[in-house]
Specification:
With 800 residues, this protein is mainly alpha-helical. 57% of the residues lie in helices and 4% in strands. It contains 36 helices and 8 strands. A 4-stranded antiparallel beta sheet has the order 4-5-1-6. Helix 4 crosses helix 8. The N terminus and C terminus are likely disordered. It binds a DNA duplex (15 and 15 nucleotides) through helix 27 and helix 35.
DNA sequence: AGCGGATGTCATCCT
DNA sequence: CCAGGATGACATCCG
């Protein structure tokens, strides 16, 4: 349904616009009055009536057209949404395509509704303020005013307060021209405008009246109900509006519009990209851009083409007569801005006011070129002209050369080149991400070098895999090495590997935990053989109380490990060395476990001494010497652990390893077999406890080490990620830089082409361009600076 | 002699 | 409640 509705609405609008352009007069009002209910049903569905908003109600009342606002609004909303989506698709800076096409919906000025009456709090709604009754006469006049400058989006209250002198003359001229349009045309346009407004943008957005407000200001006599609406919309959109913020009085009605509106509008901000799009749309490729109005939508194209819709077609060329073209331009801009506003609204209503508008001077300063003729104001507020909607616009990829695109235009413009334009970048949700907080003001500033710096500074990150390899591979490798060193056969080594692989425990140690239940009584040693700690234990146990096995074994293992980290080497050693040692013992081999504790001291001792002898490491030699020099028994005593000595002293009939590693049941059985006294039992229990705690401590330490290694790995990964992000940042910065340049050039071009009613270029000293969500505004400098000032603002939007 | 790493041990908590 | 794992703290050994 939505889809159909969307197209239906759009088509209807376009058709109407076309008719209006052609000169065919359609009485839309009557049509809508009669048809609306059905249309509404079609478009909105039966339930639509329930969803009416205050805004609509206001409009209805004020309009007097009796059109159900909702239908139009929704329609518009969907259409706008679609357009917005298309535009958003362009957000990607990297999109290479440079093509830009914009659909413009033209609204004739006459349609303006005077919002003045509604200025009340109800306006709080985005559009609410915009709702205004439109004077057909005014609208027509407005239309006639055509020249963008005249069409200025009047800041609120300007009219009543009295427009700024400089603009007045121009405005008057414009006004006069505006009269040319027939009332019918105006009505038609007005209807279209309403639709736009309903879509979500306040009427103000579309209000022609606002634009024309300048002219109205010039001509106080003429009532501009519309003007009031325009003012409102502009206020909302522009910071400048703040100036108007003082209660702005509708020229005709004399109603004052609360400042609140202004603030509300100001909150919406225009994103940089949006501005760029607008600029691009406005300045298609070098040539004088013309807006083609097709039905409701007109495409912005490079201007070589003739605009079919003559009346609404806008030419960017500076020489353009002030007549209609400027006005159209304005409208288009407004439309664009309105769309942008919608975007903002969708994303987040909490837009940030653009600081730019407030300080035009600052911006100027930033700009390289000194002269600022004027400023485009893009009203951020939701309200504003929606005449122009970008249908398809794509930003050139960052890499693309902006200058190339725009140079032609620049060349053509030849004459004055106003410099800078101030762009207000607001926080639009979409763009913000890319541009971040960058303010358009900064556009002209030299790009930050941070990105490059970062890149250069970014340290080369170590290969992530290296660490992994280290971690994962070292253990196994070291084990294998050990095995080989100690005379393991390849088969044995492979067996060892299998053991490693098969074990899925926390750590090697844990997996091979001696205490593992699987061990049978006879083979109870398994733990010792497998686990790192167990190895040590097994040795102890096997050796009995007096062997040097531990030291010798340790050294041997260390040698195998080589220069690797001590921790690692030790861990590895602890985990797997034992099995190798017991290899030579047939009975143990079958089980794969360490049964050293079963071995008599002598045997173990001899074995160890052999092992140590085989070792080539320095520590080993020492031990060898010790071993040779001292009697085995003494040496064993000296080397044995305290518990071993104690156990021997207490005449404990079995080895410590057995005490430690036997499963509880077997251990108890063992104790039961031997008749032991209290002291002996206590010692045995302590030995077991300490032994287990020892293994636990080793496991704990290994885990700590693993944790540290993992953390290191994580740090490396993060560093790598950081480097990547920095790289991306650089790229974005580059894009932003290019975009800024492009905006700058476009702004210059635009300003250069602006002409007042008399065809004179605007003085940079007097005017400046301001960008806002609502469009680009040409604002008097004093207005910008003094936002609180009166309606003087003669904003003349000149759209190209 | 002092330092730091490795290891053992204890106490404690938790499962 | 016991056995045992986990872990911090401390002690000891050793280079």
């Amino acid at each position: 349904m939505l889809y159909l509705k969307k197209y239906f609405t759009e088509g209807l609008i376009q058709f109407t616009i076309l008719l209006s352009l052609i000169g065919v007069r359609v009485d839309l009002d009557s049509y809508f009055n009669n048809q609306l209910p059905p249309l509404r049903e079609i478009i909105l569905g039966p339930s639509s009536a329930y969803t009416q908003t205050q805004f609509h109600n206001l409009r209805n009342t004020l309009d007097g057209y009796g059109i159900h606002p909702k239908s139009v609004d929704l329609d518009h909303f969907f259409a706008t949404r679609r357009l917005l989506n298309q535009v958003r698709s362009l957000d990607h800076l990297r999109v290479p395509s440079t093509e830009l096409s914009a659909w413009l919906v033209h609204r004739d000025p006459e349609t303006v509704v005077s919002a003045t009456s509604q200025s009340g709090p109800s306006i709080a709604l985005d559009n609410g303020g915009s709702l205004e009754d439109v004077n057909n006469s005014e609208a027509s006049a407005m239309r006639g005013a055509g020249s963008a400058s005249e069409t200025t989006y009047s800041l609120s209250g300007e009219d009543s307060l009295g427009a700024v002198a400089p603009e007045d003359s121009q405005e008057q001229g414009e006004r006069e021209s505006s009269d040319d349009l027939s009332k019918e045309d105006i009505d038609l346009i007005d209807i279209l405008w309403r639709q736009d407004i309903d879509l979500g943008a306040g009427r103000e957005v579309f209000n022609y009246s606002n634009r024309q407000k300048e002219s109205e200001a010039d001509k106080p006599n003429e009532e501009n109900e519309e003007a009031g609406g325009r003012e409102e919309s502009w206020r909302n959109g522009l910071n400048l509006r703040a100036v108007q913020s003082q209660a702005h009085v509708d020229g005709e009605t004399g109603e004052s519009i609360p400042e609140e509106l202004t603030s509300l509008g100001a909150q919406t901000s225009l994103s940089l990209q949006e501005c760029l799009r607008l600029l691009e749309a406005t300045f298609p490729f070098g040539e004088e851009p013309e807006f083609q109005a097709t039905g409701s939508t007109s495409q912005l194209r490079p201007s070589t083409e003739e605009t079919p819709s003559t009346s609404q077609g806008i030419t960017l060329q500076s020489p353009l007569p002030q007549s209609d073209t400027p006005l159209d331009l304005e409208q288009q801009w407004q439309d664009i801005m309105s769309i942008m506003e919608l975007q903002d609204m969708e994303v987040n209503n909490t837009a940030v006011n653009v600081s730019m508008n407030n300080d035009p001077n600052n911006n100027n300063a930033s700009t390289t070129e000194s002269v600022t003729i004027g400023s485009f104001e893009l009203p951020r507020s939701t309200l504003i002209n929606q005449d122009v909607s970008l249908h398809q616009a794509s930003l050139p990829s960052c890499s693309q050369d902006f200058p190339t695109l725009f140079n032609p235009e620049l060349d053509s413009t030849g004459g004055q080149r106003p410099t800078l334009v101030r762009v207000s970048s607001s926080n639009s949700s979409n763009i913000n991400s890319t541009f971040g907080a960058t303010n358009l003001t900064g556009l002209f500033l030299p790009p930050a070098l941070n990105s490059t710096t970062n890149l250069t500074t970014t340290p080369v990150l170590p290969d992530p895999f290296s660490s992994l390899l280290e971690e994962s591979m070292l253990d196994e490798i070291s084990l294998l090495d050990l095995a080989m060193e100690e005379g393991f056969s390849q088969a044995q080594a492979s067996q060892l590997e299998d053991e490693l692989d098969s074990d899925s425990g926390l750590s090697l140690d844990s997996s091979h935990s001696p205490a593992s239940p699987s061990n049978s009584e006879t083979s109870c040693s398994s733990a010792a053989s497998s686990s790192s700690t167990s190895a040590t234990f097994s040795e102890e146990g096997a050796v009995g109380y007096s062997t040097d096995s531990e030291a010798a074994a340790a050294e041997t293992e260390e040698g195998a490990v080589g220069g690797y980290q001590p921790e690692y080497s030790k861990l590895c050693r602890m985990s797997y060395q034992d099995p190798s040692k017991f290899h030579g013992i047939p009975q143990l081999e079958s089980v794969n476990h360490n049964h050293t504790y079963n071995l008599p001291l002598a045997s173990s001792y001899s074995e160890r001494s052999q092992l140590s002898a085989s070792c080539s490491k320095k520590g080993r030699d020492k031990q060898m010497q010790q071993t040779k020099l001292q009697p085995p028994q003494d040496y064993a005593d000296r080397q044995s652990s305290r518990d071993e000595r104690r156990a021997r002293a207490m005449d404990i009939p079995f080895s410590n390893e057995k005490i430690i590693n036997l499963p509880v049941e077997e251990f108890n059985e063992l104790l039961a077999k031997h008749h032991l006294n209290e002291d002996q039992l206590a010692l045995i229990r302590d030995i077991r406890r300490r032994g287990k705690n020892k293994m636990a401590a080793q496991n704990c330490r290994k885990r700590k080490l693993d944790t540290i290694l993992n953390l290191e790995q994580g740090v490396q990964d993060l560093q790598r990620e950081k480097a990547q992000l920095l790289k991306e940042k650089m790229e974005y910065d580059k894009c932003i830089r290019q975009t800024k340049q492009k905006v700058q050039s476009l702004s210059r071009e635009l300003f250069a082409q602006l002409r007042d009613e008399e065809g004179r270029p605007y003085s940079a000293s007097e005017y400046c361009l301001q960008y806002g969500p609502d469009g680009v505004l040409l604002m008097p400098r004093n207005m910008t600076t003094e936002q609180s000032n009166k309606p003087d603002k003669k904003q003349k939007d000149k759209k190209k």
